[in-house]
Amino acid sequence: MSTRLKDKHAVLTGAAGGIGLAVAQAYLREGARCTVADIGSQATPELAALLAEYPAQLQYLPTDVTRMVDIDALVAQASQRFGSITTLFNNAAIFDMAPLLESHEAMYDKLFAVNVKGAFFAMQKVLAHMVAGGVKGGAIINMASQAGRRGEALVSHYCASKAAVISYTQSAALAMAPHAIRVNAIAPGVIATPMWKNVDALFAKFENLPLGEKQKRVGEAVPLGYMGSPGDICGAAVFLASEEASYITAQTLNVDGGNVMS
């Protein structure tokens, strides 16, 4: 175990699997205490195994980030057990897609409820907790996406939702700078998570492709030649949470194998 995050208490949303769970594992290895939140009433088997491995450092709190009462309870219960929150890995998100002229209000409302409203108010309420508690050196890490860097014909709402995350990151960083709290984001590229099975199936439907073909194509199109894994996000997530990033704020770091250059 390293100690880059010793004495840190990280709250991670959308972390029962995929990128969120991988980052929770990395934070625990670096000495942090972690409160993991996700929408399921029970921990997934993978998360349950991690809870058994780190019983004194890890807790799971079922949370629906579209409900303000749930976010309030998350902040209160997290801090009650592990003390002041110093880090938020703001990861809860969903994906959907449709041709622009077929996209409907319900899809828009659902995506923006989680990816924008949920992300913003999770960030806001953790920041309010940090400011009220005088937390110095706090760090917010919002999960954006390469989709937030450009539009895509079939993915308009998701792209717009992640662009909003990048914009909120910049605004919050400026607002929190006087409080010595940093706000940054990570923009992953194509990452092989369980969600990609659904993404691939949607592309297969709308682009008339065999199942698995879209995932194959996007991996081959990455300059490094392959899709990333959840573990590929961990280095950036640990770095931005650590004191090594103490002079970095308002930035969105691309972790995408070279897909986006900035």
From TrEMBL:
GO terms for molecular function: oxidoreductase activity, acting on the CH-OH group of donors, NAD or NADP as acceptor; quinone binding. Residues 8-189 form the Ketoreductase domain. Gene3D superfamilies: NAD(P)-binding Rossmann-like Domain. Keywords: Oxidoreductase. Belongs to the short-chain dehydrogenases/reductases (SDR) family. The keyword Membrane does not apply. One of its GO terms (biological process) is fatty acid biosynthetic process. This is Sorbitol dehydrogenase. It comes from Rhodoferax saidenbachensis.
